[in-house]
Design brief:
Blueprint: H1 2-23, E1 33-38, H2 40-49, H3 51-56, E2 60-65, H4 71-78, E3 83-88, H5 89-92, E4 102-110, E5 114-116, E6 131-135, H6 138-150, E7 155-156, E8 169-171, E9 177-181, H7 186-189, E10 195-198, H8 200-205, H9 210-213, E11 216-217, E12 225-231, H10 238-247, H11 250-260, E13 265-266
Parallel strand pairs: 1-2, 1-3, 6-9, 6-10
Antiparallel strand pairs: 3-12, 4-12, 4-13, 5-10, 5-11, 7-8
Helix pairs in contact: 1-4
């Protein structure tokens, strides 16, 4: 029911954004303007770093920040954006509202996904019956459960896959209690639960460093590389080609390494 409601909400957003575009008279953007939606941290910061590099190549990079995981894809579908930068391929492919019309142009970085706690300093300290918050979308929720399984805390059914849910838990020896919340709410939930699985961008925004503060994290070799997403057919647009050139650069690699201290890992 929860997934049906999310799909219904996404459909309403598509209609709303489409009506907004129509109200603007369908005006087309200049082919030198690149409007890109992004989460503020680290995506928006990385894009800000290359704004001047894009200008040197004749492109006006306009960064529009979003704090959720639905509206950036809705705005891209509607034509209000030419690209977005906040998601990985498993999330892009998880929702039929946009999975058929959007595509990955290229990958940029991985944000280690971690389990955090204000009450416990080690996963072995988690008591029987501990409350653990996980994201309520199927992809990040599945990522959370796979993380817990990789450290022997639970066992999932063999066929659970990347979109595992609490219903797929085959063995829960410590009888953990799972609470499913919006991904953006995870840092605020830390005071209310024993531990919470938090996406890297939301952890960084909350002042948490995955390498320093997480009890456990997944690694840079995970399938969750954050991508530049575009509408299908725009993968080789000159604006996207220029963005690829400036983002997949030594300048950005060094910025990621020095600025995030391992909380973000370059994937190139």
């Amino acid at each position: 029911m929860k997934h049906f409601f999310s799909l219904f909400l996404a459909c309403l957003l598509v209609l709303s954004v489409s009506q907004t575009v129509e109200a603007r008279g369908g005006a087309q953007q200049s082919d030198t303007v690149l409007r890109i939606g992004a989460s503020p941290v680290p995506h928006g910061e990385i894009l800000e770093l290359v704004r001047s590099d894009m200008a040197e190549r004749g492109f006006d990079l306009r960064i529009i920040e979003f704090t959720d995981y639905i509206q950036p894809n809705m705005a891209l579908l509607s034509g209000d954006l030419e690209a977005n930068y906040f998601q990985h391929i498993p999330y892009l492919e998880s929702n039929p509202v946009w999975s058929g019309d959007l595509a990955s142009a290229f990958g940029v970085h991985v944000e280690p996904f971690g389990l955090y706690s204000e009450r416990h300093r080690n996963i072995n300290d988690l008591p029987a019956g501990a409350s653990i918050a996980i994201p309520n979308d199927p992809v990040n929720g599945g990522r959370a459960l796979l993380l817990l399984q990789s450290h022997g805390l639970i066992r999932l059914r063999p066929d659970a896959g990347l979109r595992a849910s609490p219903l797929d838990i085959a063995d829960n020896p410590r009888n953990f209690r799972f609470q499913e919340l919006e991904a953006a709410q995870m840092p605020r939930s830390l005071g209310d639960v024993d531990a919470a699985c938090i996406n890297g961008n939301f952890a960084l925004q909350a002042g948490l460093n995955p390498l320093r503060d997480a009890l456990i994290i997944d690694g840079g070799d995970s399938p969750y590389v954050n991508i530049i997403a575009v509408r299908r057919g725009m993968e080789n647009d000159p604006r996207i080609a220029a963005l690829r050139q400036v983002l997949l650069s030594q300048k950005v690699r060094e910025f990621i390494l020095s600025h995030y201290g391992g909380g973000v890992v370059a994937a190139f």
